[in-house]
Each structure stands twice: as C-alpha cells, then as structure tokens.
Prior knowledge:
The complex is a heterodimer of chains A (183) and B (291). By secondary structure, chain A is an all-alpha fold. Chain A has 10 helices and no strands. In chain A, helix 8 (136-146) crosses helix 10 (163-182). By secondary structure, chain B is mainly alpha-helical. Chain B is built from 13 helices and 2 strands. Chain A binds chain B through residues 14, 16-17, 19, 22-23, 26, 30-31, 34-35, 38, 48, 51-52, 55-56, 59-60, 62-63, 108, 112, 120, 123-124, 127-128, 145-147, 151-152, 167, 170-171, 174-175, 177-178, and chain B through 3-5, 7-8, 11-12, 16, 19-20, 22-26, 28-32, 35-36, 38-40, 42-44, 46-47, 51-53.
Amino acid sequence: MGSEKTDExxxxxxxxxxxxxxxxxxxxxxxxxxxxxxxxLRHRADADELFQDTWSRLxxxxxxxxxxxxxxxxLLQIAHNLIVDRYRRQRPQASEAETDxxxxxxxxxxxxxxxxxxxxFEERRRLQLALEDLPEEQRVAFLLRVESGLGLEEIAAVTNxxxxxxxxxxxxxxxxxxxxxxx
Amino acid sequence: xxxxxxxxxxxxxxxxxxFGNLYRRLPRYEPPRRLDxxxxxxxxxxxxxxxxxxxxxxxxxxxxxxxLVLAAGIAWRIGHEPMATDxxxxxxxxxxxxPITESPRAxxxxxxxxxxxxxxxxxxxxxxxxxPDAIGQRSDADTVRRARKPxxxxxxxxxxxxxxxxxxxxxxxxxxxxxxxxxxFPQPLDAEAEAGKSENATRPAASAPAAKSARSGAAASxxxxxxxxxxxxxxxxxxxxxxxxxxxxxxxRIRELVRQDRRQQAIESLRLFVRAHxxxxxxxxxxxxxx
Lengths: 183, 291
C-alpha cells in the first residue's frame, strides 16, 4: 500500500514524522545512489562516506522539501554537490580544452573494425576503465543518464548546467568510451 | 549521421543504446548493511528527537494552557474557601477545640506570636506595611491553612481531650502555645471579641442596644478567656451554633440536649450561655447542670 505511493508522497510523509515512508524511499533509491557515487568517486570509502552524507543532508532538510521538485532530482543534487565539494578539495579538474584534445586524438574509424570486436567480459572491463578515465563532469552526466535514468533537463538541473552543455558532455563521454572499447 | 550523434540519440532513447546496455551488465553494487543501519538509524533519531510536527506542537500548547487554567482554578478555589466555610458551617464538623479551657495568659501570650510575622518586617524596615485589606485577606487565608494542618511546633488539635489542670495552664505561660490551638478557637468568639474591643475603643459612650450587645459579647468573650475552668471537650461547631441562637432558643436547645441524654454537651453549652449572658438568670430546671 505504502509502496504504491510516489517518491514525493513518501518524502512528505517522512517530513511529517512517518519513518516507514522513509524506509520505503530508502529501499527504492539506495542502490542507484550508491552505484552513482561509487562509479563517480571510484573509491569505495569515498562512496560510503558520501552515501551516508547524502542521506544525512536529506534527513536534515526534510521539512524544507517541496513536492514541486522531483525526489530523485533533489536526492542526486545533494549527492552531486557533495561530489563537487570533494573534488574541489582533492585535485584540480581537467578543463574542457584538455578533454577536447583527447577526444580529437581518438580514431573512431579504427574502433569500428571487426577484428576489434571484444568479448563481453572485456567490454565490461573496458567500460569500467573508460568511466574511471572520464573527466568528472562527463562521467557524472553519463552516470546520471545510464544509472539514474535522468533526461537532459534533469541532468542539467542536478549539475546546474545548461541543456546543451549536458548534451555536449554526454557526446564527449560516449566518444571516449567508444575509443576505450576500441583499443 | 556522425557516430557520436547516433550513440547519443541511442543513449537518450528508452533502451539506452549500446552503451546503456553495456552499462547495465556491470556489477550492481549495493551499499553495505552498516550503511543501511546508519542511515535508517539517523532518520529514526531525527524523527524522534527533532522538532515535533506542527500538529503535535498544537497539542503541547493546548495542554499547557489547560494546565494553567486548572492551576488558576485551584488557586482561586483555595482563596475563596474560607467564605464558603463560613457560609456553610455544617460543612465544618471536625474542628475539635477546647473553647473554654484556655487560660487568658496563654491566649495573650499567643497573640504576639501571631502578630510577629506581620510586624517584624515593619520593624526591620524591609518592606512597607501591607494595607489593611491585604492583611485581612492574608489572615483569612492563614486561618484556612492553619485549620487544615497543624502549625509546625504545635501539637495538632485533638478531637477529644481531658480537662487540663491549672498547673498545666500555668505552665503554658512560659511554654510554647498550649495544646489548644488558638486557630481552633471558635471563630465567632474571636470575631466578637475583636469587634467588641474595637467598639469599646472607638465608641466608649455608646448606649444603643446594638452597642450594648456588642459590649456584652465582648465582655463574655473576655471572661471566657480569663476564667476558663476545665471542661470536657465538645464539638466547637455545635457550641458555635448554640451561640448564634437567641437566649431563649439557646436555653431550649440546652433542654433539648438534656432530653436527648447528652448531659455533658448540655453542661458545656449552659456554661457557655452563662458566660455569654451573665445578666440572664439560669432557669431553675437547668440549674442542676451547673452544680
């Protein structure tokens, strides 16, 4: 009965003191959020820490939640802000120009050759490596799409970027992944 | 179409395209149990310890207001209880006294002690003297409080006491207040005595019947204080009622007590009558009670 409620209804119920609503909400999104964080941050310890921080922020801000905002967008915005903070503290980020240079070096035609077809296992391994190598913004955009199922507008809202910017980041990310699979 | 654009369109489509499918075949990691426990525990604590929802705050507010109203009502009730007690004397049934055994010294010795709390601050100059109205209110409240519980250091009034020898009465001059608590003395006696004293002080030449009766009441009260032979205790309420009767009715009441075989009560009431109305002769049929 409670599981038929939308995320937004459950969040409002929890803000009103319904702990069961929170548990349902948590069960729905815990895996998605954890994988998003783990593949974005690449280190389990960091993912664990930010996973807990994300839910803590959500709990603390429960009374400020408004159903006009889609719950998953709000949840991933919190997570994304924490990721950005973490990256700012940890290391400098590659600029767009640097990623463009890498992208231009890729030989897309080479990757299309039949003798380059890989086993499924090898493909998955290379995809993981490609994800790890992606610049943060491209990786986040790609993961928000494939892991969280967000559209362009929602990714733009989460990452606080324009729609075309998101589209460009996704395009670059796909080019890099394809190149990685081809090597 | 550029392969990048084609892949992007596929990715944004329902199936996620080639890369979407490939991604879904990656291991699906789940958060460890300890994280589940930590998050759910924190959510639970936040609900329990956090600010209550608005509707609960309403309940708390209403409950507090109701408690205040109840407390105010009880305080008001306590403040007005003396008047109710005076109005319905039959509700006061268990105030045992020895109205006519108290020695005058004991009575007068006790008065300063009752006055002390009111006068001490004046002498110390700590606060201005309270207004007469305030004093009256306070003494009313004190009377009720003292009638309800014995004062510390004083023995509680006994429902039944034996006649006190004169030695005990004399000892009470230097000793703490006697066993008879002054607060338990019939209130009309005090009131009459006080009224009589004030009447005598302010209107020494009064000759009206009212003044005369007031003087006689004061005299009777004074004599009650000065010469108090030991008598068995009785219910102050009944004696109080007797004193409120007219002399004829009072005598009839004493005869009624004799008929009811309540001789001791009749004796006490008659002795009180003699002191209250010294100028009235005791009827012959009641004379044996005084012997």
